[in-house]
Q: What sequence folds into this?
């Protein structure tokens, strides 16, 4: 048995133990969906970090930095920046006014059925984009790592999918939270060790390290080039580069605060004050991690080399390959196993947020008008939909195979969150005049515009040379209609504009009248959901 | 004894209660004092964060200016985003002690009124 398999199995065994423990103490909806709201500030901070730092960061972003230097690092900065928005604008009002989902906050003063239906749709879309990114990451890892241990891509994807279903179906939010906490600790430890090992190669001299990254030789279009990897422009260059970058920062600034699987974490703490502290914990962890990605990515550039990375496993594998270059096969195995654990923790978070939204928003509130016909129905539906979400994502991942950079795939999900979820959430909390029509138009336009622009953009459209095959080929062989990779610069304003127009062209005195209640609840925590008693 | 799902300690206020609290001086003070911190902090961070993309995108030459050894302005600016984020978080924690105190007063007033009935 290989070492990576052993490390991975140890993680699986301990998380299954946690799931068993969590399953025994899981009574009722609040326990299943929100871990009884008894998670402490530091625990939730770690869990949010474990929930958010996905394969997209550990594999995707490190790879982007390794190949595109500073431009790749902007993805790391963005990943952190969104948490400032969460801290200042979202976390506390969300905790004070909602129960289990984003839809709860909207349904407070708007017409529950249309906004919940759309909120559930948007949640499922975001989660699906994210899920694809994670599954592809898992696939890429296996292709590189376990090729000679007899475990194929397909077996690994099914394995990840089944484990995630077990965590979520039996352990609910409590098990998911602890899986995420353990993963956050493992991942941070790995990143610290790798960073120290990289810097040790340069005698702990930062200047020496960056001197090495300032002249990296590699091949581009079969030409040998030497670049300074701290210089901008390796990914985003004129004419569209600058706007594309601004677009990216908008997606990060607003999208993170609209990610359903991040938002649900703030329902697991007892009150808004704890939610606030937990965001700060998360910011410390996530920020430190992302600062380290610059050392890891650039370390891979210098110590492994862009040419080698591209030809041996591709952009997603720069981190694990760096581990091998630094400390040999054993550490490579450990890092890969931790990357696997990362994927498991994130897909569990995605699955629980998607199934919660389906069960609570769509099944109970839209179809059955908020009435549980028998006790425990919504939890049962959530468990069944977790099963469905798991099965569907296994199938999609099997169909896709190892594809493009997972860091970029994840930003698609974030673009939907920034353009649809974030505008309605913020306006519903802060704008008295906001109403159902505004929310419906914003969610619809935000969702459609984001997906439409992504499909019409250079990620899906492009003319490839005849020798490009498989995943290197664009899906649509035509010049892109929309020049930007990142759609935020159009889709975010469109989302806000749609909510503005939708609101102004309609009147809903009831929604306005309930604004006082919402704002008092949001700011004082009066009447907020309590933690379950021991 | 059966475990209760969720319990609310206070009696659920009605529409008139909500409107009265919202219009109350204490609550308006709380909102104002929150606004004084949150709005400038958030706007500043947004500008500072988007500013990084603007610098890197529109002034790559300037961004490539080497400051310490081969470390350039762009990388230092990018790192400073983390520092600024952490500082804002720390300041927010400090400021929020005040928010919590005001909130407590509002709830105490509310309870006092209830008790007096």
A:
């Amino acid at each position: 048995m290989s070492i990576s398999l052993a490390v991975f199995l140890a993680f699986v065994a301990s998380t299954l133990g946690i799931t068993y423990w969590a399953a025994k103490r899981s009574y009722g909806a609040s326990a299943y969906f929100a871990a009884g709201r008894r998670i402490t500030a530091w625990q939730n901070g770690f869990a949010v970090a474990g929930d958010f730092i996905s394969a997209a960061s550990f594999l995707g972003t490190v790879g982007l930095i390794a190949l595109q230097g500073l431009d790749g690092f902007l993805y790391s900065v963005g990943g952190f920046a969104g948490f400032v928005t969460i801290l200042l604008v979202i976390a506390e009002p969300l905790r004070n006014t909602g129960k289990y989902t984003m839809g709860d906050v909207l349904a407070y003063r708007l017409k529950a059925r249309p906004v919940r239906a759309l909120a559930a749709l948007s949640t499922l879309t975001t989660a699906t984009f994210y899920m694809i990114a994670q599954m592809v990451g898992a696939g890429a890892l296996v292709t590189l790592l376990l090729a000679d241990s007899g475990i194929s891509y397909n077996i690994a994807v099914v394995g990840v999918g089944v484990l995630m279903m077990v965590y979520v179906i039996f352990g609910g939010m409590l098990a998911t939270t602890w899986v995420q906490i353990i993963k956050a600790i493992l991942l941070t430890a790995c990143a610290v060790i790798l960073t120290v090992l990289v810097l040790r190669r340069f005698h702990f001299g930062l200047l020496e390290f960056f001197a090495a990254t300032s002249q990296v030789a590699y091949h581009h279009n079969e030409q040998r080039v030497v670049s300074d990897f701290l210089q901008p422009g390796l990914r985003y260059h004129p004419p569209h580069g600058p706007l594309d970058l601004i677009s990216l920062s908008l997606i990060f600034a607003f999208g993170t605060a609209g990610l359903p699987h991040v938002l649900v974490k703030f329902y697991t703490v007892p009150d808004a004050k704890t939610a606030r502290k937990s965001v700060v914990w998360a910011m410390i962890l996530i920020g430190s991690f992302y600062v380290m990605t610059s050392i890891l990515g650039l370390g891979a550039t210098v110590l492994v080399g862009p040419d080698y990375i591209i030809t041996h496993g591709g952009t997603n594998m720069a981190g694990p390959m760096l581990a091998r270059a630094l400390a040999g096969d054993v550490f490579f195995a450990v890092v890969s196993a931790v990357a696997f654990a990362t994927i498991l923790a994130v897909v569990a978070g995605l699955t629980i947020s998607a199934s919660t939204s389906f069960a609570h928003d769509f099944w109970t509130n839209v179809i059955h008008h908020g009435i549980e016909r028998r006790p425990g129905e919504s939890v049962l539906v959530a468990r069944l939909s977790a099963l469905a979400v798991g099965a569907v994502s296994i199938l999609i991942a099997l169909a896709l195979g190892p594809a493009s950079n997972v860091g970029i795939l994840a930003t698609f999900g974030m673009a939907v969150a920034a353009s649809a979820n974030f505008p309605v959430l913020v306006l519903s909390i802060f704008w008295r005049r906001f109403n159902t029509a505004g929310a419906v138009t914003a969610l619809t336009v935000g969702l459609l515009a984001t997906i439409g622009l992504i499909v019409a953009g250079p990620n899906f459209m492009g003319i490839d040379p005849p020798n490009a095959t498989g995943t290197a080929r664009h899906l649509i062989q035509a010049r892109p209609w929309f020049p930007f990779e990142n759609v935020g610069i159009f889709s975010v304003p469109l989302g806000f504009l749609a909510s503005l127009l939708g609101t102004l062209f309609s009147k809903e005195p009831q929604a306005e009248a309930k604004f006082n209640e919402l704002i008092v609840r949001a700011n004082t925590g009066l009447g907020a959901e309590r933690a379950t008693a021991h | 004894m059966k475990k209760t799902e969720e319990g609310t300690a206070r009696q659920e206020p009605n529409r008139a209660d909500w409107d009265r609290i919202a219009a109350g001086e204490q609550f308006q003070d709380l909102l104002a004092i929150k606004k004084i911190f949150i709005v400038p902090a958030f706007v500043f961070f947004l500008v500072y964060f988007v500013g990084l993309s603007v610098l890197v995108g529109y002034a790559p030459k300037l961004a490539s200016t080497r400051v310490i050894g081969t470390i350039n302005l762009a990388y230092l600016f990018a790192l400073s985003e983390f520092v600024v984020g952490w500082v804002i978080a720390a300041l927010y924690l400090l400021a929020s002690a005040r928010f919590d105190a005001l909130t407590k007063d509002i709830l105490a007033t509310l309870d006092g009124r209830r008790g007096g009935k």
Observations:
- The first helix of chain A runs from residue 3 to 24.
